[in-house]
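Hi support team,

I'm filing this because I wasn't sure whether my run with zinc ion finished correctly. The job status page said complete, but I'd like someone to confirm that the output block is well-formed before I use it downstream. Pasting the exact inputs I used:
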Amino acid sequence: MITDTHSHLFWKDFDVDRAEVLARARANGVERMLVVGTDVTTSEAAWDLCQDEPGLYPTAGIHPHDALSIDEVGATDRIEELCRRDGCVAVGETGLDFFKEYSPREAQERAFRWHLQLARELSKPVIIHCREAHEATLAAVREFPGVRGVMHCYTMGPTELGHYLAAGLYISFSGIVTFPKSEDIRAAAIEVPLERLLVETDCPFLAPQGFRGKRNEPAYTRVVLEHIAEARGLEPVELAQVTSRNASELFGLEGR
Ligand SMILES: [Zn+2]
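And here is everything the job wrote out:
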């Protein structure tokens, strides 16, 4: 069994054929998918989507791109209420994106810390997005010792890796690791201790090599998994088991 630890299946791109997308995922062994909220509306949509579908698990949070929306009336109450629900498996996604900087850094930093605090308070893992913000991300994480979570869509190299591992975080790789130019990321994917490794799509974005430029979907988690397995000299089935077990442990999912 493969677990896609980061999908945005509520996205409008999936409205036309969501049932087929899920069927293709399962046909490829991707039986479990986290559906990651990015603001109040999509966190509610993620929750709703997961209610009638086995193997789908919702999260709730405000993406750094939308960090300013944390100031909207009722936003934090709404996210917190969703995160407190038993079925909600993680807080986020949150984090820092100084590359696109769609929200001011100050708002991103504030929203990130709010999520870290909530995750620790609820003893739920936090899903962290980090782009061109390594130092600031690490500084914030260190302010919340004991917080559990994952560096999602890891796009840094082995140099930065040790700091996140030392902070106790899991490391998740998306289709970016399959790109020929991603040598540094691949090196990190080889170095992560097996018990901290996760895989994801981040769909509908970031389709892996062979599907680039197309809509990404959970079935392609298999491509990411096979790529890392080959780089590490492991059988894909072995890596599927390990990463699914890791996902079960971090997010408290049922099954292995
Ligand atoms: Zn995402």
